[in-house]
Amino acid sequence: MTGRSRIAGLVKAKPLLAPVLVAAGALLLASCASGKATSERTTTTAPPTSTTTTSPPTSVPPSPGTSSSAPTLATCASSSLRLAQDQAQSTPGAGESYIAYTLTNAGSTPCSLEGFPTVAFYASGTGGTQGERLPLATRQSGPAPAPVTLDASGAAAFYLVIGNVPVGGVGCTRVGWVSVTPPGSTTALSTASPLAPCGGTVGVTALVLASSLST
Fold first, then answer.
1. Number of domains composing the chain
2. Residue 133: helix, strand or coil by DSSP?
3. Which run of H or of E encompasses 150?
4. What digits encode the pLDDT tens for the residues 31-66?
5. What are the pLDDT digits (tens) for 147-159?
6. Which residues, including other chains, have CB under 8 Å from residue 69's CB and lie 6 or more apart?
7. Are residues 5 and 87 in the same domain?
8. Distances (CA, A) of 79 to 95, 106, 107, 156
9. With b meaning 16 or more CB within 10 Å and e meaning fewer, what string describes 46-73?
10. Taking the CA of residue 70 as centre, how many other CA atoms within 13 Å lie in the half-sphere pointing to its CB?
């Protein structure tokens, strides 16, 4: 082939190479743009979450309450008590008389009494024994009751308040025996006690220590 022919062949080939070169250039530009975009891409990372560890609350048990109450003594049973009229503490009067009676703890352990005793009156029977019950009423008299602690051989006491003169046309009743049921018991104790209360009603005071007995 001559030189003119080779030049003509190149000229003919040039139009075919141009699109190829253009396409290659476009691919190259796209690749560069993609690399640049990749290098310029910013990765956003969420800030680390701050975790606060809280210790569980300490359970503090409540402080125990204190109790200093003294043990309660048992009520004195009738079987451990002895009833007697106390002549030394009895007080005669013009309009009324205070007749004292004691309940002594014959047991070996302390016990307690509180309240008004229940009192009934009886006539003297044959041979000085207790006879029929007499229709005399009672009423509570004096201060309100308070607990009384009886050690072994300790004594509680109360008064019978009896009228010495007729009241409202009601005369006097001859009594030979007095029956006493201590508070908290259902068993009565009896003692011979000659009385002549007038007016049909007898006052009964609350039990106190015998040593503090007073009108």
1. 2
2. strand
3. strand 148-150
4. 444 444 444 444 444 444 444 444 444 444 444 444
5. 999 999 999 999 9
6. none
7. no
8. 36, 9, 9, 15
9. eeeeeeeeeeeeeeeeeeeeeeeeeeee
10. 4
Q: 2 forms bridges with which residues in the sheet?
A: none
Domain ranges, residue 11: 1-37
Q: Does residue 45 belong to any structural domain of this protein?
A: no
Cα distances from 192 to residues 31, 75, 203, in angstroms, run: 136, 25, 19
pTM: 0.67
- Summarised one tens digit per residue, pLDDT across range 94-143 is 899 999 999 999 999 999 999 999 999 999 999 889 999 999 999 999 99
Check residue 57 and give its pLDDT.
43
Q: Are residues 201 and 99 in the same domain?
A: yes
Tokens representing 80 are 């451990």
For 41, 44, 50, 146, the CA distances from 47, given in Å and listed in that order, are: 18, 9, 9, 79
The reply to whether 147 and 208 lie within a common domain is: yes
**175 part of a folded domain:** yes
